[in-house]
Structures are given as structure tokens and as C-alpha cells.
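Recall that a protein's primary structure is simply its ordered list of amino acids. Everything else, from secondary elements to tertiary packing, is in principle encoded there. The following example makes that idea concrete.
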Amino acid sequence: MPRTVASVTGQTFSDFEYIIVDDGSTDGTFEWLQTITDSRVKVMSHDSRSNKGQAASINLGMSRASGDYLVILDSDDLLAFEALEKHVEMLDANPALGMVYGQGYAVDIDDQALYPLFSENHVEESKPDRLLLDCYVVSPGLCMFRKSVVEAAGPLEVSFRAAQDHDFLLRVVEQAPFAYSGVVCFYYRKHDGTISANGQLTRWENGFEILRRASKRYSYSKSTLRKRKAVLSYRLGAVLFGQGARLKAMGYFMQSGFLDPLRALAVMTGRETIQ
């Protein structure tokens, strides 16, 4: 947490408020936060310092924010020191944009870079269909949002305990154009631990609900909706197969192949790794 806070308070752009929502921590974090003397830092918590989950905490912070732009940062991720300056400049210069995101790096526990999150030739076409299909913006921490667009899109879905970021980003990009800056802005903490099998199951089951809602809300192409369902079917099948529910898994694998046979063949032959 101290390194995360330092990455924000040390920004080259200084005109910001830093809202930290403590989600019922019991490890001394809340008490440590009280020792911060930077007047730009505002520490908040839920009623009775209860634990309400990530989505509810982010929503609380966004609802109290007074600025024109928003950045969402998890407690163990880091901002690059020019992130705010560069993305404020880009949003100021392009008032039609609702969101801008930049390059990020996965880092280990010692903040050593492991790999970039985007290739050198990454290009953003500002097409919600592409983000729905491939979910390539892996964290909101990469992004700066125009607050008015977020207000139109709505808060994070608190009923989702996984994949809520993807749902939120989709609703934002459905509202306004978005762009890639190429600026290194974010360091994403890569932990050795992996999501539990039950957590993965929840993630991909939520994915079907996110897809259903997206199809009702926005004019995504039928091809995109079909191919995204194929991805979700494959991913859910892989989790079920790992849990030993092989017959049920085969049903999802068959559905995936039927919905997107060319991509299924590429995955089976090792020519593509499905997202």
C-alpha cells in the first residue's frame, strides 16, 4: 500500500484529489492511512467500516470525486509518475473522448517489470465490438475516464464478484470514443497465486450475463456476440474439465467449436491462445 500511495502522490501533475476507500481492513492499513499528511489524500470507509467488496468501494470513491477525470487504482498496483499529466493533456485536447488508456507492465512483488501489456504495434480503433470480444484492457488502472461519461455509463455492478471491470469498461466505451496513448502509465501487480477454480467459474459464468446485458444495451454485431459466446463457452468448459465435470465440459467445448469453428481449430492446433 505505501508504494501505491507514493506512486500517486509523486505524480508530475499535482492538481488532483486521491480518494482511498478502506474496505474494512483488519491488518492495520486503515490506521496507517490516518498518518498520511498530504492534503490531497482523502481516506473513506463504508458505514461501520464494513467490508462491501471492490465494486462497492470503487463506486463510493467515484461518487465522492469532484474532478472532471477519474482513475481507478487497486491497492497494490502502481501509477507511472507521468500518468496523470499525459492523460489529462490528451483528454483536454480531445473533448469527444470518454476514455484514454496507456501502456502498462506486469511487475513482480519487487516492482521488477515482467512484460508489457500491449505490443509495440498496438492500435486502438475505438470499436466497442473489439473490446467485448477480446477483453484486452486488463485493468481500469490503465485508463483515465471522463467523469461525465462514467456518470452516463453507471457504476460498477456490485453483484458481480468477478469480471465487473470488463462490464464497466464496456458500458463506458459504449458512451463515447476511446483512445490509446502509448504512454507508460501503469504497473500491474502479478501475483504468484492464481484465481481459485470456483473464482474462475464465477468469472466465466458472469461473462455470459455480461454478454447478455451488452446485447440488449448496444448494437454489437451478431458475429461479435457469437464469437464472444464461443470464447466464454471454451473458458467455462476448461474450468469444468479441470474440476472433473468432463461430460458437462464437453458440451461447452462442442458449443464453442460450433459457434466459432475457425478459432476453435486455431486453439486446438496451438496457433492461438484464447483470451
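The radius of gyration is 19 Å. The mean pLDDT is 90.
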